TrEMBL record:
<feature type="domain" description="Activator of Hsp90 ATPase homologue 1/2-like C-terminal">
    <location>
        <begin position="39"/>
        <end position="174"/>
    </location>
</feature>
<keyword id="KW-1133">Transmembrane helix</keyword>
<keyword id="KW-0812">Transmembrane</keyword>
<feature type="transmembrane region" description="Helical">
    <location>
        <begin position="6"/>
        <end position="26"/>
    </location>
</feature>
<dbReference type="InterPro" id="IPR023393">
    <property type="entry name" value="START-like_dom_sf"/>
</dbReference>
<dbReference type="InterPro" id="IPR013538">
    <property type="entry name" value="ASHA1/2-like_C"/>
</dbReference>
<keyword id="KW-0472">Membrane</keyword>
<dbReference type="Pfam" id="PF08327">
    <property type="entry name" value="AHSA1"/>
</dbReference>
<comment type="similarity">
    <text>Belongs to the AHA1 family.</text>
</comment>
<protein>
    <submittedName>
        <fullName>Polyketide cyclase</fullName>
    </submittedName>
</protein>
Length: 346
């Protein structure tokens, strides 16, 4: 009995010491700020923060869990927009609101986590450092915690910083794809032959052999594009702004053959686990290309390809594959909008 009393006294002493140390030496809430820079215009960056559907696609807090379920509430972006979420696997839920918006300058978020009635307040400020560079500053105020929960404040800032670091990496990929698409659309000059230097790309797709009779080839391309798109978006969970335009690769002069072999894929930022053996990754090496943009029937592309080949022969250049980049997704019984790129070298 005496031993039990001694143990009880020791426990009470330790609990009391812990409570006193938390009360006197640990703040009941934390205030800190984090600064990051990103090489994209402020308007494009801001739209990824004030639209919560965009926000949850790249923010690591939401993106890292496969079991999280998110509901979005009107107006979906800007002041007054909100989401609620629940994550049964990680036993957490909460609500997030945008309480204030000054376009391209400031946002204020309120985040209620689990059953805590006091929100985390986050002010985010955006500053254009140049036409293509933005500084983002987070001002974070965490909710007040009871004495016994204040120990959480020792790692709150570190967790927040880690989440932002991972989120920014994903945001750069998202904006890179969006800006690349916008730039390509703005630069299109149809039926004009140009020379471009292409950067390395990583494609996830499938190898196919198909008949070249009448419209059979294009129907086959549409079918296999849909297979790749569905795998990337449904099985891998990628959103449209997380990857580039679909690309088809084939021999330059096989348009005359009865059967055509090709690879059709979607550009991704990095390799990941693929569970379906029908799909594989292919790296497209950096190259110099002769390029033409074409819009019309898929069969009509042959004339543009012939022009690219004739140009290469005239310039005494050797040539390799033709890359067909679909600026608009291929759809059956519709014209195509494609970028034709012939790889050339001495």
């Amino acid at each position: 009995m005496r031993f039990i009393k001694i143990i009880a006294v020791i426990i009470l002493f330790l609990v009391g010491a812990y409570a006193l140390s938390m009360y006197y030496f640990v703040d009941e809430s934390k205030n800190f700020q984090i600064e990051k820079e990103i090489d994209y215009p402020v308007d494009k960056v801001f739209s990824q923060f004030n639209n919560l559907q965009n926000f949850t696609r790249w923010n690591n807090f939401f993106k890292s869990s496969q079991s999280i379920d998110i509901d979005y509430y009107t107006p979906y972006e800007g002041q007054g927009s909100a989401i609620s979420y629940t994550d049964p696997k990680n036993d957490t839920d909460g609500e997030m609101f945008i309480r204030y918006e000054n376009p391209n300058k400031t946002l204020r978020y309120q985040l209620f986590e689990d059953k805590n009635e006091n929100p985390t307040l986050v002010d985010v400020k955006f500053k254009a450092l140049s036409a293509n560079k933005t500084k983002i500053t987070w001002y974070v105020h965490t909710p007040k915690l009871s004495v016994f929960r204040r120990v959480q404040n020792f790692w709150t800032e570190d967790r927040f910083v880690e989440n932002i670091d991972k989120s920014m990496a994903t945001l750069r990929n998202v904006l890179g794809n969006k800006v690349e698409k916008d730039n390509q659309l703005a630069a299109i000059k149809y039926d004009s032959l140009m020379v471009e230097n292409e950067e390395e790309k990583l494609l996830l797709g499938i190898n196919v052999s198909a008949s070249n009779k009448k419209d059979a080839l294009y129907r086959n391309i549409v079918m296999n594009y849909n297979k790749v798109y569905n795998y990337v978006t449904m099985d891998l969970g990628k959103k449209d702004d997380e990857f580039g335009y679909p690309m088809l690769m084939t021999d330059a002069d096989n348009y005359k053959d009865k059967e055509i072999s090709y690879f059709i894929g979607i550009p991704l930022s990095k390799k990941m686990g693929v569970t379906d053996n029908n799909f594989s990754f292919r790296t497209v090496n950096p190259s110099q290309n002769y390029v033409m943009y074409y819009k019309g029937t898929y069969a009509g592309r042959v004339k543009a390809i012939q022009q690219l080949i004739q140009k290469a022969k005239k310039d005494e250049m050797r040539f390799g594959d033709v890359q067909q980049t679909f600026i608009e997704r291929p759809m059956e019984d519709q014209d195509v909008n494609i970028k034709l790129s012939l790889t050339v070298f001495k």
